[in-house]
Design goal:
The protein contains 14 helices and 12 strands. The protein is an alpha/beta fold. The longest helix has 17 residues, at 276-292.
Length: 364
């Protein structure tokens, strides 16, 4: 028996389940797949502004170390102040990715004796952070304020509640007004992941919590979606920022983002708040898709076409790929068995003609 046979055994099982994952290049197809909702990942203006900022810095290609050692610099601290001000919070701490932010936040803050109660559809990065935490954890029925209340009342000690403002697989929005009111009433610490709301939800793309005039213990805004770059920021109190600097392992033990990456973040934040026309166009495409595809219900750029079974979902995605439409299947085990689907993502750079072509191909 070869030493790596156990790897092939696991891979063959995935193949039998029609769940084998492979990397694929877009190949010039119309983008209905990426999270680049506003097109900022391909924006020349963002590139130009970032280069202007970068030219004012010392010519270095990397940060040189972790933030606590050689990797801290003035621009990243300025970015944290700018973003905290934009998002109307006292302080923020930048992480290298949304995954790192959620891992570092949830693994560090809840303590032994605490409880984390999370929406059952919460993102994998939060689940992984919860697993690393010393706190106990339970899920609650998706978007059920009644079930959340039941779970909070069933435990003692500090309670942390974790939700996403926009859920990445279904595109629906959390009932944040009701959830915030419940957490305030029962003294729970609410943490909201705004990854898929940043740049898209609210008059300036500020996210759902801020657009609703709500506040919470912590918010996570990531930059790899509508902001069009990379990284994330955890927003909250000054005490939370200081705590994460001292105890969050995914912040402490990693090399900091290079200055140019932070320059891109600042450039994007300078641009997307004023992209009112792009957000309006995106809203019109969402309405067009919902009208044209039976069962489409999301009010966000993330749309779902259910295709139960890995084989069926893969075949439907393949058919759309053959039509020049870059749509990807979401398979079990990423989603529960029987909830396999196409995850369609609409963008401000898509045209009405692009969307009509997609609708026609789906409805064949």
């Amino acid at each position: 028996m070869r030493k790596e046979d156990f790897l092939e055994t696991a891979l063959n099982k995935r193949r039998e389940q029609h769940a084998f994952r492979q990397l694929r290049l877009p190949g010039g197809k119309i983008d209905f797949c990426s999270n680049d909702y506003l097109g900022l990942a391909r924006s020349e203006r963002v590139q130009e502004e970032a280069l202007t900022i970068s030219r004012q810095l010392a010519q270095v290609h990397g940060s040189g170390g972790s933030r606590l050692l050689a990797g801290n610099y003035e621009l990243v601290e300025e970015a944290e102040r700018v973003l905290a001000s934009f998002h109307e919070t006292p302080a923020g701490l930048i992480y290298n990715s949304g995954y790192d932010a959620n891992l570092g936040l949830f693994s560090a803050v809840p303590q032994k004796g605490d409880t984390i109660i999370y929406d059952q559809l919460i993102h994998a990065s939060i689940r992984d952070g919860v697993r690393l935490s010393a706190a106990q954890s339970f899920s609650f029925i998706h978007n059920s304020v009644e079930d959340l209340q039941k779970k909070i009342l069933a435990v003692d000690g500090r309670v942390f509640v974790a939700v996403e403002s926009v859920y990445s697989m279904d595109g629906d929005m959390a009932l944040l007004a009701e959830i915030t009111a419940l957490c305030d009433k029962l003294g729970a610490f609410l943490i909201v992941d705004e990854a898929h709301a940043t740049g898209v939800i609210g008059p300036k793309g500020e996210g759902l919590m801020q657009a609703l005039g709500l506040s919470c213990f912590a918010r996570v805004h990531t930059f790899g979606k509508a902001v069009g770059c990379h990284g994330a920021i955890v927003l909250g109190s000054v005490a939370l920022r200081d705590f994460l600097i001292n105890f969050s392992r995914s912040f402490i033990y990693t090399t900091a983002l290079p200055p140019h990456a932070v320059a891109v973040i600042l450039a994007a934040y300078d641009i997307f708040p004023d992209m009112h026309l792009e957000r309006a166009h995106l809203s019109s495409l969402i309405a067009q898709f919902r009208k044209g595809v039976p069962g489409a219900a999301s009010e966000t750029p993330i749309q779902v076409v259910m295709a139960p079974g890995n084989e069926q979902a893969r075949q439907l995605a393949h058919n759309l790929q053959q039509e020049g439409l870059d749509v990807r299947a979401i398979l079990h085990p990423t989603v529960p068995r029987g909830q396999e689907r196409l995850r369609v993502v609409l963008h401000s750079f898509n045209t009405a003609a692009d969307v009509e072509r997609l609708i026609t191909a789906i409805n064949i």
